[in-house]
Model the fold of this input.
Amino acid sequence: MPTLIRSVRTILSASIVSMTLLIAGAGFVAAAPDCYVPSGEYPTIFSALNDHTCSTIYVAEGVYPEHVDVDRTVTLIGAQANVDPAARTAGDPTESSVLSFTVREENVTINGFSVTVGSPSRNGIIVKTPGSGSLVTFNVIEDIGSLSFTGTERDNAVGVYLELGPDNVDVVRNKMSRIFSTNGSAQGVLVGDSSSGDPSLDVLIAGNIVEGLQSVFRGAYGIQINNGASTAETATGHTTGVVRDNRIDGLTGSWAHGVGLEGPTPGLAVLRNNISNLTDVNPTAFNDVFGVLVQSNPHWGQIQINENNFVLENMAEHGIGVDPSTPGTGMVDGTCNWWNASNGPGPVGPGSGALVTANVDYSPWLVSPDGPCSGFVPTNSDECRDGGWETAVRDDGTSFKNQGDCVSYLNSGK
Done:
């Protein structure tokens, strides 16, 4: 198994130690103040951000009808900082509820907020290119966009958007749900876009819940990485990082992709994600459902997709796919995944599980959700011994009765 290509940066806690400022001419170092919203001095988040001596801003529970524009390095702490978002609801009285965040400076932390931007605005949290080094964590982002948009332009709706190349951004342990679009795509996390030539480097998208996304006429994506205009053949020309331990469930659209790798992503790792309940509402030529899709991405031989659970419809939907129009060489490392069947993936593979396309190395596979990784088609008699036959299958996906049956298959092909 490939090793994880980077470690998780430590999530900041609500008890973050205040930054220090050197007081000019005083000969000592004094702590920068923590600021609190609402208070007499700071009735709004904007007013606290406007005071540049506030290095950490604590925002109490309540409704703040603000589109928060963050144009300096700061730590924003909501009432639900470091609280698991799974059971939380945007707009609950215990939440610090805002309309949206736009990050325009490096090293910004947003921890413990509720975001409900609704329509016509269609982005919950945007981290723009200068926002490198930022952390988005423990937030609930819900009810973004609309299914009744009447305009003619694309109305993409996004939970967290890394726009045009911010680097070293962590999107960790957030919940993104009920994200809707009519003429555009609905995305939990979007990194880049098809016109972006500046990829985000060293991103971490981990431990998030993405659920209940719907597009009427276009696609639904749990996590999409799309730097379609990035053609550089150097390390700075590609999105790099880790997508791991996310739960992606309930995506509906004209196509539905749990993780879309659309554009150069060599060295990217997609690990231990649970992907389920994806629906293509218009399956004309084929059912356009993929747990992970590699598309317009010529570096598929450098991508790791391991230990994921694809709980998809057997023999109808793809766990991992490489778009056949994508140029490139090598094989995607798609080993040690659960394909929703103990005998592995479907037609290109030997089993009855979710489909796999060509150019994916799928063997061995998980024989149950979360392991062990021991499913395979035997190629020599030694692999039948010492109980190996128990997790081996014929190339038609059928199991062996015993070790002798396994050896016989190798000798006769039956």
